[in-house]
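Weekly modeling sync, notes
Attendees: AB, CL, MP (scribe)

Item 1: holo prediction request
CL wants a bound-state model with uridine-diphosphate-N-acetylglucosamine before deciding which constructs to order. AB pointed out that an apo prediction alone won't tell us much about the pocket. Agreed to run with the ligand included and paste results into these notes for async review.

Input as submitted:
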Amino acid sequence: MATLVLVAGARPNFMKIAPILRALASRTTPIEATLVHTGQHYDASMSDVFFQQLGIRKPDIHLNVGSGSHAQQTAKIMMAFEEELLRLEDVRGVIVVGDVNSTMGCTLVAAKMHIPVAHVEAGLRSRDRRMPEEINRVVTDAVADLLLVSEPDGIKNLAAEGVPEDKVCYVGNVMIDTLVHQLDSARQLDMASKLGLTANELALVTLHRPSNVDHRERLSGLVDLLIRVAARIPIVFPVHPRTNNKLREFDLRDRLDGAPGVHLLDPLGYQENLSLMAAAKLVISDSGGIQEETTFLQVPCVTLRPNTERPVTVTEGTNTVVGEDLDKAWQTVDAVLSGRNRPGQAIDGWDGRAAERIVDILAERWLAS
Ligand code: UD1
């Protein structure tokens, strides 16, 4: 029987595949999908909890690749994925999402086997090749056959790279599909109260980019910034495993943990995190997706990065990219806490229906025969 292969590997992929799987299954004639988990993220808190909360079925294939250097991890993904694709019959196409190593590795494998690839969240560009995700985006878009774009700049970026127009479709944002689907239950969870905090009187923090957490001096500066923020408003900081390892390695975890107003947590499930994000007065983060989620929720976001591949969150949304300057970060936080922030606007196609549009396109291009 004809099948589409849907790939997920790391935490930010799981909220993107959930609505696609739902849309495939809910067609008048359901479309058969083979779900592949590469195992790039493997801790229960980075993977299993998302499957449970988002109602994603057990993967049909698990590649169990785990962590490693970029080359090791990508190579393991490619070798294991190739073997599985060779085994599967009548694969009509491979769907990859986002910009993680699993996205790029599986795209390369499928393209070389002449299997069409659709990239969901195509066209985003930070123009910063020091970001591993930027390499993943550029390579994935260069060889994928169908580029499904989530924000207006993606269309411009792909046109500027000479991608033929018929390969590119604006579909909107699948991550917002999941947010819309989960928001009521996340609000009911009321994580703020569970932590003894009050809605609109907390800041949510997430940090995991290598450029922020892998160097002692930078991470130490960020810890000082967070302690300063926590003196004004309680901060809730679910700590990514990479960041936790580095805080311990640099002897910074105790300094942060002991500071007044700081609540350090293990990584949170999707709903717990969304509950806090929706209740936050402000979010401080270096995440890609959180810039979009806060824009949708109209919560101010201070992005601790020199650039963003999601500029619509700045031009239309609630995001401020503060660069590497920690004084600027503090001033932006201060402006938000003093009520000097601008409201955001709704973004085209961030409406909870992106996955349906994607599946319509796939059905027409890959399955009609
Ligand atoms: C990856 C993605 C990044 C995404 C992030 C979200 C790439 C290049 N990066 O970065 O785009 O924003 O996921 O989390 O694909 N670890 C664990 N348990 C896990 C997974 C990782 O302990 O389940 C630890 C390991 O020490 C590992 C480190 O985290 O070496 C980094 O994991 P890795 O998948 O290489 O990259 P992330 O930083 O998570």
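Recorded for review: The chain has a mean pLDDT of 97.
Action items: CL to compare against the apo run; MP to circulate these notes.
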